[in-house]
Specification:
Blueprint (H helix, E strand, L loop, with lengths): L8 E3 L9 E3 L14 H14 L1 H10 L6 H10 L15 H4 L5
Antiparallel strand pairs: 1-2
């Protein structure tokens, strides 16, 4: 698959500007300094959550988006923690009631 993407190259007329040129970013398609599209990153994150390191890396190579197991684990570690729900029912500690423990 070949995707041709044309973006505008913008120039800064300010002489004190250190960058000089800027490339236009396409929302939801590119990210700054990104090597993966946001959609591919979501796919790799999902594979990483389900399979973790080496199995996730093997699946990514089958999907024609090979990454290392370290990258797969880094993607999973970068995800926010899921929100923990407050339990509605608490059980008694059965082990404290056995064998004469108070």
């Amino acid at each position: 698959m070949v995707i041709e993407l044309s973006v505008r190259q913008l120039f800064c007329d300010n002489g004190g500007c250190t960058r000089g040129t800027f490339a236009e970013q396409m929302p939801d398609l590119t990210v700054r300094y990104g090597r993966q599209t946001p959609a591919l990153r979501r796919i790799l994150e999902a594979a990483g959550v389900v399979l973790a390191g080496l199995p996730g890396a093997r699946l990514s190579s089958v999907l024609s988006a090979p990454v290392s197991r370290t990258t797969m684990l880094s993607l999973v570690m970068a995800l926010p923690d899921p929100v923990a729900e407050t339990p509605r029912v608490l059980g008694a500690d059965d082990f404290a009631l056995k064998k004469g423990h108070c």
